[in-house]
Each structure stands twice: as C-alpha cells, then as structure tokens.
C-alpha cells in the first residue's frame, strides 16, 4: 500500500470540498477501498474519513424513507420498516457478503463498490477500467463471472452489488452534495454509466460529490423476492440474481417490477420485460417470452455463455414463485 494523508471530515460540506481533488477518496466502511489500496489498484494520495458525519439515520420521507449514506448494510436489513415494506431490499442485503462485512459496509459505499473482475484486480493484466486504453483481457480470458448485457469492446466487467439491484427495482433516488455546496437528486437509473469507450468512468458523480442519502418512494404492494444464484451458499457474488415484486389481481399479474444482477455491467432493468408480463396469467409461455426479451441483446464471451441458459431457467422459476403469492 502506498502512503497517503488522512483527514477526518467534520461536515459534509468540508468533505466534499476537500475531495474535489481527484487524488482524494472518501472512506467510510472501507470494505472495498482498502482491498484495492493494498493491491495498488487504487492509490489515493489522501483519504477523507466521513464516518463521524450525521448520516446514519433512517427517517420517514413523505410516503417513503430517507436512508443516510452511512447506515450499515446490517442495520438497513434489520430495520423493521425495510423488512416489512421493502422486503426485496432486506433480502438483497442479506444475500451479500458476510455478516462481518455487512456490519461495516455502508449504503452509499455499496452503491459505488467496484467490479470483482479478476483482470481489474490483477495489475499486470490489461484492464481499461483500471488503466484506460490498455485493453480488456476479460473478453478473451477467463470471464465466467462477467457480464452478458451492457458490455462494450472496452469492458465486460459485472457490477457486483446486490443492494443496488433492489434499489434499482424500487426506483430509489440518490441524494448528493457537490464540492461547490449544491445538492442534487439522481434517479438510481441514471447513477451508473455503461462502459462504452470509458469504462473507468463508472457513475455520473462529479469529483468530490458526496452521497448523503438514498430516498425510497412509497412501498410496492405484492410479493417481494430476491433470488441469487451463486457458486456457494454464502459470501459469493451473483452469477445471476433477480429482484422481483409481483402483485396479482384476479389471477393476472397486475403489477410487475424486476431488476437483475450478475449479468449486467450496471444494475440491470428492462421495462419491456415488465410490460410484456402485465395483465397476463402466469404461465410458461409468457415467462419464456419475458426471458427472451431480457436476453435479446445478450452476448456471451465463452466461459460465461452458460449465463444465457441460466437466465432462461431462473427467471421463469422466480416469476412462478412470485405469482403464487398473489390473489
């Protein structure tokens, strides 16, 4: 690990202003950043500690909730309102990492965690996300865990967060404070950027822009599920995951919300997949049509070709399970 300066922020405004320097990073739980620093994938010259900032509460916000950026994953998953009204989020959180990591990982940090692509972590490998313009060894290398949707010639790295998938389904808003002191609300659908030609630019956040909270809208009625397929039962990233909320009425799917992890370069959602299911009776034919639409732009790269079949099997099973919980 390279040497760095350390500063403890006393206010969100101070933290954002100091971090406007591109060589400065915020640190809270540090569950991802410290690993990257040890491997010299990340080499900030200064860390700004934000753990003392008053961003650790979960409060009612109109019909929804406002979640402070420093709320730990464990505390968020255990909150009675989250478990009751946003069960898909609680289940996604509990499927991620280990208990010890969830105790440290923060809500804001979880949204910004970086890919677990092995070529990103291996500094001798070519990786456009780590070193722009160097190439992408993942496309022709061992790419079993990598993305099949949203890829480009420059990057096929998968976004790793389970929490972000559920937040994407819930249409959360990300509240931030910029280095110049202005605030903004970013729909989570607009937070993460597809890799395109600039995979190292992962979000729309500006230098020094600090996530202060996440706002959840009113709860969704229906059966909440989070299904995660992985190599082992715990502490493993998704090969494919489905966040689903399905509300049934008179034997038909009256409302369907879906988001996906493990297959996209960003937390993935396709509104067309939801629309094709609305008003339909649950069944193998319509579920297969939904899977076909989701995969219409999918591309495997060899080792991860199996994900296409995995989606075709898993999505119908999740939808059938969700539909059984309705009226």
UniProtKB/TrEMBL annotation:
Among InterPro entries, the record links this protein to: CO_DH_flav_C, CO_DH_flav_C_dom_sf, Diverse_Substr_Oxidored, FAD-bd_PCMH, FAD-bd_PCMH-like_sf, FAD-bd_PCMH_sub1, FAD-bd_PCMH_sub2, Mopterin_DH_FAD-bd
Keyword terms of this UniProt record: FAD, Flavoprotein
Instruction: Keyword check for rRNA processing, yes or no.
Output: no
Quick check: keyword Transcription regulation in the entry? no
Q: Name one GO molecular function term.
A: oxidoreductase activity
Q: Which part of the chain is the FAD-binding PCMH-type domain?
A: 1-221
List the protein's name: Xanthine dehydrogenase family protein subunit M
**From which organism does this entry originate?**
Aureimonas flava
Taxonomic placement: Bacteria, Pseudomonadati, Pseudomonadota, Alphaproteobacteria, Hyphomicrobiales
